What does this fold into?
Amino acid sequence: MPIEFAARTRRIPVYPLAGGYDLGADVAMLASNESCFAPLPVVAQAAAAALGATHRYPDPSYAPLRRALADRYGIPPARIALGNGSCDVLLAAGEALLEAGAEVVYAWPAFSVYPHLAAASGARAIEVPLDDEDRHDLDAIAMEVTVATRLVLICNPNNPTSTAVTLEEVEALLRRVPGHVCVILDEAYCEFALTLGDTYASLELLHKYPNLVLLRTFSKVYGLAALRVGYALCGSEDFRVAVDQVRQPFYLNAAAQAAAVEALRHQDEVERRVTETIAERLALEDRLRGLGLWVARSDANFIWLHLPDGAEEADVVSGLRDRGVLVRAGSSLGQDGSLRVTVGAAAENERFVEALKGVLN
Ligand SMILES: Cc1ncc(COP(=O)(O)O)c(C=O)c1O
It folds into this structure.
């Protein structure tokens, strides 16, 4: 007789994992919005040094990392939540805030993990369609906030569509959301966003809106995806206390903590990499538009394009794969007939464009 699992387990959607990790080295991995830059050697060394003390649990106060982030962003350490990737903080937020009878509001398509929050908690998910430019429709989102709403998620820049809304637009939404409703601004890609100004700009909002949480990660711009480190800058300490309450202790391993602290010491190199990625992104967008494709105005380290009429998404994705280029099918992310493509190194981007031309012809 099979094991009987909780009903909620059956409701939780399966996360659309990227394939291709078994394909070997000669593949352009453009499916998971990772950084194409390896970590700096000093960052890798910091992680390796931590491995010499793995007989001890990691520091459960996470004090050095909390302090480093506090110094960088001018937010008290007690208002900084950490996690095993920002996903960990997101899922903990769902657990801490949601329950049957409650509602969570977010745009769709957005980050594939959002539907998990409602499914796992029994809350109702209110999914608000994007506008004609595949951007968040914040006005429509504000109109969905009811007495049952506990959480509003804004993915800015949005994964998978790469678009961003301005912070003025975000603030207009915050003004309309009651103070007891938590608003998470998921800024996993904010460092790549020309629309948002610098990475300090949204911090201004934290000072005004205690119900706001800025969710960020070391997985993208800092190139530490494999180590899993995320953080949240919180408008109030309550959020950090709640997400810590629902999780196991020691959620952030020692190598990850050490690497993240070291990574924060090399902002010049981080910015150089961001500049290079943005230049590649703009060039890639131009080339694809030159092919007559609709490409969203990207503020992230990936692009989002609509396939031309008559092109079968599954055929395009498998044709690219046959040519050694891995991208994401829009259908696996909530919108058919589209592709999400990570901006890689110049040679990878070139390979993608040539492969796409081959497939579409
Ligand atoms: C919008 C968004 N938020 C959060 C995450 C989670 O990142 P991590 O758990 O690696 O910090 C991702 C990862 O792709 C993302 O795209």
User: Anything to note?
Assistant: The chain is about 40% helix and 15% strand. The radius of gyration is 20 Å. The pocket of pyridoxal-5'-phosphate is lined by residues 33, 85-87, 111, 155, 159, 186, 188, 217, 219, 225, 230 (CB under 6 Å). Residues 67 and 77 are 6 Å apart (CA to CA).
